[in-house]
C-alpha cells in the first residue's frame, strides 16, 4: 500500500453561514427550536433571512469546517462538495482554497443556488440553525475524484449529507474507493434527526466494518443505540467501531478504542460567544492527533482546545493560531 499524499479528504455540504444575534423570544416567535437545526426550503430561507438582524457571512458546512481546522493545524486536506455557479458559490470556493484546502468539484450550473445556513445566535452563544441545502444536495457520484480519495489517509464523511439521495450514493462510492485503497473512513453522525431518518443505514455501515472512526455527541449516541444512559450507550457501541469519540459539551469528551478509554474535560473559555462549529473543530483536533499517531487522550485534548477556540468568537472557522494553541499538547 502506497503512502497517502493527503491526511484527510472530506465529503460534505458546501454551505455559507449567515449569522446574526437574536433573542430567544424571536426564535420562539419564528417557530424555531432553540439550539436545533431545521431543514428549510427556498421560501422559508427568504422569509427567515428577512427576519434576521444585521449579520455576517462566513463559509461553513460541517465537514468543510473540520478541514479548515485541520489545515490550520498543518494537515494536508482536500474537500468534495457541491456549490452553484453564483456569488455564494464563489465565496465558498475562495474561502476553502484560501485555507490551503484542495477543492476541484465543478460548480453546478442551473437553478439551484449555493446552500446557506441561517443561524440565529442567542445571548448565551447558543445557535439555532436553519439550513437550505440548495446545490449541495445534488453532489453526483461522477464528481468524486477517486484517485484523491485513495491518496488520503482518512476519508471523512458528514452525516448531514446522507439525507439527499444523490450525495448518499456518492458517499457509498467513496467508502468503497477508500476501503479498496486500504485507508480509514471517519464518519460524523451530525444530528439526532439524521439518525432518526437514516439510523438503519448507519448501523449497517458500522456492522459491516465500514467505519473506522465514529464521532457522536451524547444525544446522537442515545439515538443510535437506543440507550438513554450514557455509559450503556458507550458499552453498546464501542465494541463495534475501532475508534469511538463522543463529545459532551461542557462535560468534555470521551474516546474508546480497542478496550482503551480516555476522557478530557472541556477547555475553559472566558466567554462563550457562538457554539457554531464546536463539534466540527473538535473532530479537526482529534483527527489531527490521530493521523499524527498521538494517544487517545492527546487527540481528545487537541479536539477540546480547537473547540474552545471556535466557541470564543462568531463563526465556525478558526481565527486564532491553532498551531500555537496546541503546541503544548504536541510537545
Q: Give me the CATH architecture, please.
A: 3-Layer(aba) Sandwich
Percent helix range: 25-40%
Number of discrete domains: 1
Strand content: 15-25%
As for the CATH topology, it is: UDP-N-acetylmuramoyl-L-alanine:D-glutamate ligase
Characterize the main sheet: 9 strands, mixed
The CATH H-level homologous superfamily: Ribokinase
Number of strands: 14
Average pLDDT works out at 94
Question: SSE order, as H and E?
Answer: EEHEHEHEHEEEHEHEHEHHEEEHHHH
Low-confidence stretches: none
Please work out how many helical segments DSSP would assign.
Answer: 13
CATH classification, class level: Alpha Beta
Instruction: Give the distance, in angstroms, between the N- and C-terminal Cα atoms.
Output: 30 Å
Query: In order across it, which strands form the biggest sheet?
Result: 6-5-1-9-10-11-12-13-14
- Helix-and-strand structural type: alpha/beta
Please tell me what the overall shape is. globular
Sum up the structure in keywords.
331 residues, alpha/beta, UDP-N-acetylmuramoyl-L-alanine:D-glutamate ligase, 9-stranded mixed sheet, 5-stranded mixed sheet, 13 helices, 14 strands, 39% helix, globular
Give the structure's gist in a few sentences.
This protein is an alpha/beta fold and 331 residues long.
Structural features, described:
- It is a single chain.
- The protein has 13 helices and 14 strands.
- The protein has about 325 residues and is α/β, with parallel strands linked by helices.
- The chain has one domain (about 5-15, about 60-110, about 135-330): Ribokinase (UDP-N-acetylmuramoyl-L-alanine:D-glutamate ligase, 3-Layer(aba) Sandwich), CATH 3.40.1190.
- Helix 10 (about 280-290) packs antiparallel against helix 11 (about 295-310).
- The protein is globular.
- It starts with 5 loop residues before the first strand and ends with a helix.
